Amino acid sequence: MAIELKMPALSPTMEEGTLAKWFVKEGDEVSSGDILAEIETDKATMEFEAVDEGVISKILVAEGTDEVAVGAVIAEMIGEDEEESAAPTPASTPEAPVESAPEPAAEMASEVTKPSSVSRASDPAIPEGTPMTAITVREALRDAMAEEMRTDDSVFVMGEEVAEYQGAYKVTQGLLDEFGGKRVIDTPITEHGFAGIGAGAAMGGLKPIVEFMTFNFAMQAIDHIINSAAKTNYMSGGQMRCPIVFRGPNGAASRVGAQHSQNYGPWYASVPGLIVIAPYDAADAKGLMKAAIRCPDPVVFLENELLYGRSFEIPEVDDYVLPIGKARIVREGTDVTIISYSIGVGLALEAADALADEGVDAEVIDLRTLRPLDTETVLKSLAKTNRLVVAEEGWPTCSIASEIIALCMEQGFDDLDAPVMRVTNEDVPLPYAANLEKAALIDTDRIITAVKKVCYR
Amino acid sequence: MAKTPQKASSKSKIPAKGATKTTPKKTAAKPASRLPVLKTPIYKASKAELMEFYEQMLLIRRFEEKAGQLYGLGLIGGFCHLYIGQEAVVTGLQSAIEPGKDSVITGYRDHGHMLACGIDPNIVMAELTGRASGISKGKGGSMHMFSVEHGFYGGHGIVGAQVSLGTGLAFGHKYKEDGGVCLAYFGDGASNQGQVYESFNMAELWKLPVIFVIENNQYAMGTSVNRSSSEDQLYRRGESFRIPGVQVDGMDVLAVRGAVEEALKYVRGGKGPVLMELKTYRYRGHSMSDPAKYRSRDEVQDVREKSDPIERLKAMLLKQGVKEEDLKALDKKVRKTVLEAADFAEESPEPEPSELYTDVLVEQY
């Protein structure tokens, strides 16, 4: 039996990549540790090493092939103990293994990979006829930072691996080359310290962008985000400002366990003095990141690792800046409102499409900014649909969902035809096991169930 | 430079009783390998300068005494940390920096620093009484006062936070290439906080223009330095980051001024941070509600009698021929200033209720 060499994953969230280069050819003898090929994704490059000893019998995916699914068989080799005669296996076309990508990987990431083909209302901020182009959320964030850095010398980026490594999640890719080491600064692993240095630099008149590799690590620095950044303007009677952006991925990624999988949106959104932004698509990521950098108030900008690689249409306009504090109706509907933000918006849109097939016309609202909350848009939609569900990738207790429900009770009670429901993650630390993780996280089906419940269907 | 042994300019241990009244002397302290050694000369002040120092220290002393009084009368609420005893530290340091260029940041025991930055005593006192005319419109209180105009960046209530923030101010000076230096003041208590060392590391790594000023008043609230610090010679706390440190008699304004001039020279030269340990003493409790069970009355009395920075300078002035009545007149002038500040603070109205909602954010969204 030939040994199958499969397309490796470089990260827990990788689904496919480019087979950039083969370092071996058919018939080559290899021993464990030999470099066989180079694999690339938009985030990183990795050398693929042999684990077993033997002879490469077949190369099934040619070098330069894009979109090779993780787990696809890319080559075969004969183990050293095997007979040479075992080598010729029934011919399989090079394309075949790519198509038969193992199900588990694809399924696990299916939520993530699905292109957003759902119907969307157009952003009213974009004039009709504006040419659109598709970019990833990762690129949108990087472009926003680069554009602002070009126009304002006081903007700089600091954090772990933002410069030479090009960003742990490649969000700052290319910035060091363009702006140099003075403005793109690698820090030691010292969140508390560099968050304080960033806040101090902001107090002194600069506009720092502080990247946390993930917001899980920002807990080491939360004192500076809240006590130093958020409260300063108030405590100083308005004379000392702290114009800083704290940014990085937030929420559950994929199979990284409890300490690396938490949504801090509700934490920061509870603090007066902070602006909290959590965009879903690339256009909002760009327009709001640019607004955040220009903002004279401290901003917590919550990104999502699973969204970084997703492509969205973004208007081709110069200087695309969006207003902070404005939600967006991403899908218009009349029967029920689904409120969400960040990665939950994609699930809500999927749910809305599925519900449409069953005759339920759902309106989907992307909050985009969690603080200050756009209560007007929420209440207006409630007045229209009279039914509301909040979908949130995060814990239920003291959540944004809780806040929306309180808002509906206090200011929208007369418009309610049904109790407001929240669909969230389970109230447990996020488990590692694939099945348990899946069970703990919000999904489209749960949103559909909740919507049907408030619609009494 | 500097392959010579590090000078320890004080006794090898924190004295159990009383503050330092030391002249720098060589000890058998182990040499810190290859760290630059900064000099700590005694500053040679003119008579006019001596008078200025005297007036500044007296203003802080009288201001704090008045604040203590107003606290007792219920006019000042919350926490109130007095600076009495430590006046020489801030007076000596602030006299050496360049206003409008350098920046200053400290913790919650900040009244003295504000006065030494030249901020109007009226609006400082009015902040203490929580009035609309206070420097933070009454919304900050004793621990949270700022004056960007004077290069005074607070006034921070979280112990140790000002060290990272001050390092950030220094980062700004270097980034903007404005030639400024940040004086980041903190206490012996804060010197055990983790972020202090995170900041040391980055400050030296990036050669930031910051002077870390440890005001060692020998008690972190009620815990003495020797009960809380494995290395109680705090000026050495930067050694593993390659930050040179000096220990200075913080009860002697001329020693403070002399040492900081050398430190400033080093830092302005782009060589990175310096750590200064100023050995001083606080006469009053940690805050107004301090029961002071952790030290004896005799200990405090002993320092007051032997090392008081104001009395020390007064003696020097008299020796130089300044007349007793001139000093009395100065005292009278200072008392008047403080009295006016107290009246101002008492008579100013409280903030308008509508101020509750202002300044939360700079912009409307």
The average pLDDT value of chain B, as a whole number, equals: 92
**Low-confidence spans of chain A:** 85-118
Q: Look at the structure and give the CATH class of chain B.
A: Alpha Beta
The description of the largest β-sheet of chain B is:
6 strands, parallel
Distance between the first and last residues' Cα of chain A:
55 Å
CATH class of the largest domain in chain A: Alpha Beta
Q: Helix tally of chain A? A: 16
Question: How much is the average pLDDT of chain A?
Answer: 90
Q: What quaternary form is this?
A: heterodimer
Q: What does the main sheet of chain A amount to?
A: 7 strands, mixed
- The domain tally of chain B reads 1
General shape of chain B: globular
Which homologous superfamily in CATH is the superfamily of the largest domain in chain A?
Thiamin diphosphate (ThDP)-binding fold, Pyr/PP domains
Beta-strand segment tally of chain A: 22
Largest interface: chains, residues each? A-B, 46 and 49 residues
Describe the overall structure:
The complex is a heterodimer of chains A (457) and B (365). Chain A has 3 domains: 3-108, RNA polymerase II/Efflux pump adaptor protein, barrel-sandwich hybrid domain (OB fold (Dihydrolipoamide Acetyltransferase, E2P), Beta Barrel); 132-315, Rossmann fold (3-Layer(aba) Sandwich), CATH 3.40.50; 326-454, Rossmann fold (3-Layer(aba) Sandwich), CATH 3.40.50.920. Chain A has 457 residues and is an alpha/beta fold. The relative contact order of chain A is 0.10. Chain A has helices spanning 95-99, 103-108, 110-113, 137-151, 175-179, 191-203, 222-230, 232-235, 265-269, 282-294, 305-308, 344-357, 375-385, 400-411, 434-440, 444-454; strands at 3-6, 16-22, 29-30, 35-40, 45-49, 54-59, 65-69, 73-79, 132-136, 155-159, 184-186, 207-211, 245-249, 275-277, 299-303, 311-315, 328-331, 336-340, 362-366, 369-371, 388-391, 421-423. Chain A is 30% helix and 22% strand. Residues 85-118 of chain A have low confidence and may be disordered. In chain A, strands 11-10-12-13-15-14-20 form a 7-stranded mixed β-sheet, sandwiched between helices. The longest helix of chain A is centred in the first third of the chain and has 15 residues, at 137-151. Chain B is α/β, with parallel strands linked by helices and 365 residues long. Chain B has a single domain (47-284, 295-346), classed as Rossmann fold (3-Layer(aba) Sandwich), CATH 3.40.50. Helix content of chain B is 39%, strand content 10%. Chain B has 11 helices and 8 strands. In chain B, strands 2-1-3-4-8-7 form a 6-stranded parallel β-sheet, with helices on both faces. In chain B, a hairpin with a 2-residue loop joins strand 5 (219-220) and strand 6 (223-224). Chain B is globular and about 60 Å long. Chain B starts with 46 loop residues before the first helix and ends in an 18-residue tail after the last helix. The relative contact order of chain B is 0.18. The chains are: A alpha/beta (457), B alpha/beta (365).
